[in-house]
């Protein structure tokens, strides 16, 4: 048991590992997840750069700190999609998505029409109830 635990890589080793875990499995799901994390990192660093430009007197700081954070954030995003537990989760998500039966375009259009119709019917019903209660309360003198 102790020997098995000694053979498992530590968190720090996982962070600095360069290889891709189970390279051919869950490729699209991993790429989309990496892209989402990368966009969040890039937008955050862009906002940080704008903030530092407004408060910092030194022009180098506004580019150096966000640049280092972009590099670190993109590396951690790359490693996050290759951590064994998270990668296995993304691989299973990809497998489940392959099992989904997606609706046809006609089914989507019909369902959308039904939803819009029901929303307008409920809005009309709520308007009628509101109008009725307002009429009752104004007749009784409760609301002026």
Description:
The protein is an all-alpha fold and 144 residues long. The chain has two domains: 10-100, no CATH class; 101-144. The protein is 78% helix and 0% strand. The protein is built from six helices and no strands. It has helices at 2-7, 11-16, 27-55, 61-80, 84-99, 105-140. The mean pLDDT is 86.
Biggest sheet architecture: none
Beta-strand residue percentage: under 5%
H/E element string?
HHHHHH
Mean pLDDT: 86
The oligomeric status of these chains comes to single chain
From the helix content, strand content and strand pairing, which structural class follows?
mainly alpha
CA-based shape: flat
- What is the count of DSSP helices, taking H or I runs of 4+ residues? 6
Distance between the termini: 79 Å
Helix content: over 70%
Topology:
Blueprint: H1 2-7, H2 11-16, H3 27-55, H4 61-80, H5 84-99, H6 105-140
Helix pairs in contact: 3-4, 3-5
């Amino acid at each position: 048991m102790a020997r098995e635990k000694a053979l498992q890589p530590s968190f720090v080793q996982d962070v600095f590992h360069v290889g891709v875990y189970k390279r051919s499995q869950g490729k699209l799901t991993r790429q989309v997840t990496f892209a989402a994390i990368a966009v969040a990192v890039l937008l955050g660093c862009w906002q940080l750069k704008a903030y530092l430009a407004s408060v910092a007197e030194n022009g180098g700081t506004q580019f150096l700190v966000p640049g280092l954070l972009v590099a670190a954030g993109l590396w951690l995003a790359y490693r996050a999609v290759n951590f064994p537990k998270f990668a296995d989760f993304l691989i299973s998500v990809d497998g489940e998505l392959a099992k989904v039966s997606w609706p046809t375009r006609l089914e989507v259009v019909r369902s959308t029409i039904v939803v819009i119709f029901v929303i307008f019917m409920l809005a009309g019903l709520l308007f009628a109830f509101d109008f009725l209660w307002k009429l009752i309360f104004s007749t009784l003198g409760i609301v002026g």
